[in-house]
Design a protein that fits this description.
Elements: H1 3-15, E1 20-21, H2 24-27, E2 45-46, H3 51-63, E3 68-71, E4 88-91, E5 98-102, E6 107-111, H4 116-125, E7 128-129, H5 142-148, H6 155-158, H7 161-164, E8 165-172, E9 177-179, H8 193-197, E10 205-213, E11 215-216, E12 220-228, H9 231-244, E13 248-255, H10 256-266, E14 278-286, H11 291-300, E15 304-309, H12 313-324, H13 326-331, E16 337-342, H14 348-362, E17 367-372, E18 378-384, H15 392-403, H16 428-441
Parallel strand pairs: 2-4, 3-4
Antiparallel strand pairs: 1-2, 5-6, 6-10, 7-11, 8-9, 8-10, 12-14, 12-15, 13-14, 13-17, 16-18, 17-18
Helix pairs in contact: 1-3, 9-14, 14-15
């Protein structure tokens, strides 16, 4: 029996014969990322249905030094959930479901494979909402968003995923199950396991369950799309709105070329007769109608030349499509290089203006598409027309972000795509400390090898 056959038989003994996938055609969707830029060779996909099966799988692979790539909805955009070196994929799509909702206190417990959409629906059934929202809500999972510390479009009000996680159950790279799902909303007893695990991108272990803080549900909301005559005015407005409008939930920025691409890709009518300039999408929500308050703020912003206000849910969804369809529309042009970054407030306009010029100076045939969470000075820089394996433009843009004292990842994580630039985010002493944390959870180095920290960036010896 070959080593591959031995591995497959052992994994089937753990999770059941039908829950180890090895047909290359069946596993293809598990071996490539959403963008199509990253794809791995044929490898087994293990689909456990319990924490015990996750622990047994990790323990078996640890003893044989077999790498594991944890995977949720596989909606990541930086190669963090792709088995590039033939690692075993540990899919959590069977470990799903909302387990409980503490309705009077607004706390929900869910298995890691539960989609964000299902979390939102369960919360709303009990009079609450969930603070994290993103366009991939019906495929992105609780475990995946914890692994990447996803932010989404509501972070300006509720913060990122780390702000929502009050407890986790995680199986470490040693196969040890750690759990603090006891239920308290505050825990000040030293090192905070949920905070350590959130954002670790599957390099420490596998989150199997989570306890989440829910957000108040607001029955009245108003959505407005603003067109500005200049990028500078739009960026300044986006960065200012959080301080002007306490009820704001979302502040999203995009540009004219992105809007035109979305309209062409999905046969949408543009929101205004004129499409030049830059756009800011604002959504406010409250127990009282926030329309008047929002209109007063909009009236105070310099540079606004057009305004569209959603009068009902259908109109709201139409306005949101102009922003949320950007990712899918860009993929119709080609395989994009995706760089999610953020800069200090006050530098957003400079980044928006300089990044496309920098890209075109290096790759004249490339196109740069910009959109993102303007209220937090965070930007998704998408570049098409560049070979998927050519990271010259990536290097230049990330170093520009560093020059502006920004961060090379503000949404999707480091993954494999940006691991070699980790020194732009952390100095040598920090990297050594991160390596020690990695080694404490995963001394054999089997968990998502090559993601977040380059293999040379850590060791079990510290």
């Amino acid at each position: 029996m070959t080593p591959e056959e031995t591995l497959g038989r052992a994994l089937r003994d753990i999770v059941g014969g039908g829950n180890v996938l090895d047909d290359p055609e069946v596993t293809a969707r598990y071996r490539r990322d959403w963008t199509g830029r990253f794809h791995g060779p044929p490898t087994p996909v293990v689909r456990p249905s319990s924490t015990e099966q996750v622990a047994a799988t990790i323990t078996y692979c640890r003893d044989r030094e077999v790498g594991i790539v944890p995977q949720g909805g596989n909606t990541g955009l930086v190669g963090g959930s792709v088995p590039l070196a033939g690692e075993v994929v540990l899919s959590l799509d069977r470990l799903a479901g909302v387990e409980s909702v503490t309705a009077h206190a607004g706390v929900l417990t869910a298995a890691a494979g539960t989609t964000i959409g299902d979390v939102q629906r369960a919360a709303r059934e009990h009079g609450w909402d969930y603070g994290v929202d993103l366009a991939s809500r019906d495929t992105a999972t609780v475990g995946g968003t914890i692994a990447t510390n996803a932010c989404g479009t509501r972070a300006v009000r509720y913060g990122d995923t780390r702000h929502q996680v009050v407890g986790v159950e995680v199986v470490t790279g040693e196969g040890v199950t750690l759990s603090n799902l006891g239920g308290t909303l505050r825990d000040n007893t030293g090192y905070h396991l949920p905070s350590i695990v959130t954002g670790s991108e599957g390099t420490l272990g596998v989150v199997t369950r989570a306890r989440l803080r829910l957000a108040a549900s607001y029955s009245l909301r108003t959505t407005a799309l603003l067109r500005f005559g200049s990028v500078g005015d739009a960026a300044l407005a986006a960065e200012s709105i959080r301080g002007l409008l306490p009820t704001v939930e979302s502040v999203e920025l995009f540009l004219a070329d992105g809007l035109e691409l979305v309209c062409a890709a999905f046969d949408l009518a543009p929101p205004f007769t004129e499409t030049t300039g830059a756009y800011v999408l604002i959504e406010a929500a409250d127990l009282r109608d926030p329309t008047v308050e929002l209109s007063e703020v909009v009236g105070s912003l310099p540079g606004v030349v057009d305004v569209a206000v959603a009068e009902d849910d259908a109109a709201r969804r139409r306005l949101w499509r102009y922003r949320e369809e950007h990712t899918a529309a860009i993929s119709t042009v080609g395989i994009p290089h995706k760089l999610d970054v953020a800069v200090p407030p006050g530098s957003l306009a400079e980044l928006v203006e300089r990044a496309p010029l920098l890209v075109s100076s290096i790759a004249p045939r490339a196109r740069t598409w910009l959109f993102g969470h303007g209220g937090e000075s965070a930007l998704h820089i998408n570049i098409t027309g560049v070979d998927p394996d050519d990271d010259t433009v990536d290097d230049a843009v990330l170093r520009l972000v560093g020059e502006l004292h920004g961060t090379i990842s503000a949404e999707h994580g480091i993954g494999r795509a940006k691991a070699r630039w980790i020194e732009l985010a952390h100095g040598p002493a920090e990297l050594q400390l991160l390596g020690r944390i990695k080694a404490a959870f995963d001394p054999s180095g089997i968990m998502n090898p090559g993601v977040l920290l380059p293999r040379t960036g850590w060791s079990a010896d510290g």
